[in-house]
Amino acid sequence: MPxxxxxxxxxxLRISVIDHCNLRCVYxxxxxxxxxxxxxxxxxxxxIETVAQAAVQVGFHKFRLTGGEPTLRPDIVEIVSRIAATPxxxxxxxxxxxxxxxxxxxxxxxxxLGRINVHVDTFHPERLKKIMxxxxxxxxEAGIAAAEEAxxxxxxxxxxxxxxxxxxxxxxxARRARERDWHVRFxxxxxxxxxxxxxxxxxxxxxxxxxxxxxxxELGPLLPVPGGNPSDESKNFxxxxxxxxxxxxxxxxxxxxxxxxxxxxxxxxxxxxxLLNDDELDVKKALxxxxxxxxxxxxLARAVAxxxxxxxxxxxxxxxxxxxxxxxx
Length: 329
Ligand code: SAM
Description:
Strands 7-8-9-6-5-4-3-2-1-10-11-12 form a twelve-stranded mixed beta sheet. Helices cover 32% and strands 16% of the residues. The chain is built from ten helices and twelve strands. S-adenosylmethionine (SAM) is lined by residues 21, 25, 27-28, 66-67, 69, 95-97, 119, 158, 160, 187, 189-190, 192, 201, 324-325, 328-329.
């Protein structure tokens, strides 16, 4: 298993396959001033497969595809299938806004996708529109239904809690994890990239403690789920009569850097060492100069060794270079 210099086991690679998105969430992607990675600069499906092969060699076994919106890649089914077919890969998951899943959920499941996390901040149609700016609740609900139908279970719903946008809806979301076997996870806003989205993240921040209090005061006590994976960033609970799980992901109020097991690959081919830092190692050059699996494995091993100990948001240090849609969450 690859260990970094702080003894953490780093075995989970999150691969951003594209920086485009079909939504414009207020805390993630500005409406104007965007520039995207030109297509020839995106890693190809074959290059992503080479990275997966190298990652397995280094000791990684868990993979997640993200973006931007990963389903916007015309070759997303091929990418999933290449990673899933790589010997040593145990788990291939995806994070998506679900808009394109009615068409893609079944082929993705067939290609080897095991699980999907769907991002839904509220089931209130107007408030959702205000957050996402593009897209509709009907599209997302149809996507979730298609994912369930395709057997991509359990459905995990990611909700970023944003004051005055959706904090009034957290109990409604949590109720869905009581009635169904969904995992509904509430995420604290993180300021990335220093622009208008970082401003929203700082101004509209809601700590998980407050979200939990709101849920419990409306729906009753949440009971901790015992056991679980120590590197799961989510602290998990259930209602006594609940079918699903309610989780809280609190990178700001309760950082979990000490148990972080993640490495990230950006769509333009850089290992991004920590979500909330700018440190990166380029891998595309090695891929495009016929370095192949051994060269990529050497770069990834170096990236693991250099992974920072934790974020330094409390010292005012965050990413300057990249916003969330350019890393993938
Ligand atoms: N398009 C996909 C989606 O919507 O899930 C994948 C990419 S998106 C960047 C991944 C996750 O990051 C989403 O759940 C999104 O809500 C979350 N996210 C985006 N900006 C964030 C921020 N500033 N703080 C916390 N989470 C954020």
